[in-house]
Write a structure and sequence with these properties.
It is a single chain. This protein is of the alpha/beta class and 229 residues long. Helix content is 57%, strand content 10%. It has 9 helices and 4 strands. It has a 4-stranded mixed β-sheet with strand order 3-2-1-4, with helices on both faces. Strand 2 (148-154) and strand 3 (159-164) form a beta hairpin. The longest helix is centred in the middle third of the chain and has 22 residues, at 86-107. The protein is elongated.
Length: 229
């Protein structure tokens, strides 16, 4: 059985970004790697936290309003059940909390809701961590002059990041990439991810050409094509 190809953007977007990388690298020894992902993390831990908080709140409400819940228990048993002992009531409360935890966990298996309930700071941190991981695997120290730089886009988190190799980071402060990031975000919001990444690449090329102009016999050491993961 053939594996389904990952596709977050169109073939036209692939061509636009790949061409932009090739063009930008004509004026610099810098090597630009472009990566686009649907999502940077599964946020399983966030779902665990929400489920635990929900269970804790549910059990706290029972503790704060015992008469209300005891009345509900009598209603559910038709008034024929014996008054539960303290230990039995504790067991009922714990079972109630466990069911609440399971219910919330099942609801949060729907990933769009899980992502929506994840704080923006956490999403930004996970996207940054993913960008750094990918940089370390495929770009860091992979060029002779340590002039590789990754442009990473995570669509569902609405986050993008630039991670540069040692030589670039020593000369280019992170805020210098601000214009490239702004152009990228503006076009992605307009539904043009390929154009956004291409424009960011063009502006990154200008910065790299200033600090690392093209030298003789500099090979193309990293892939120009847009990588989808």
């Amino acid at each position: 059985m053939a594996l389904r190809k990952i596709s977050h953007v169109s073939e036209a977007d692939h061509r636009i970004v790949t061409d932009a990388v090739a063009e930008a690298e004509r004026g610099t020894d810098g090597e630009i790697v472009t990566i686009i992902a649907a999502q940077s993390d599964g946020y399983d831990d966030v779902a665990l936290v929400w489920a635990s908080v929900g269970a804790f709140v549910a059990m706290s409400l029972v503790a704060l309003f015992p008469a209300c819940y005891q009345g509900l228990y009598q209603t559910l048993t038709g008034g024929w059940g014996a008054e539960p002992t303290a230990n039995q009531w504790l067991g009922i409360v714990l079972a109630f909390g466990a069911l609440k935890w399971i219910g919330i966990w099942i609801i949060l298996l729907w990933r769009p809701l899980r992502l929506a309930l994840t704080p923006r700071a956490i999403k930004a941190g996970r996207a940054r961590a993913r960008a750094i991981d990918l940089f370390k695997v495929g770009t860091e120290a992979k060029t002779v002059g340590r002039t590789g730089v990754v442009l990473y886009v995570s669509l569902k988190e609405h986050r993008a990041d630039i991670v540069a190799d040692e030589a670039i980071a020593a000369k280019v402060a992170p805020e210098v990439w601000g214009e490239a990031m702004a152009a990228l975000i503006e076009r992605i919001r307009a539904g043009q991810p390929g154009e956004g990444m291409a424009e960011a690449v063009r502006q990154m090329g200008v910065v790299l050409a200033e600090h690392f102009p093209k030298s003789d016999n500099n090979p193309n050491e990293l892939c120009d094509r847009l990588i989808e993961i």
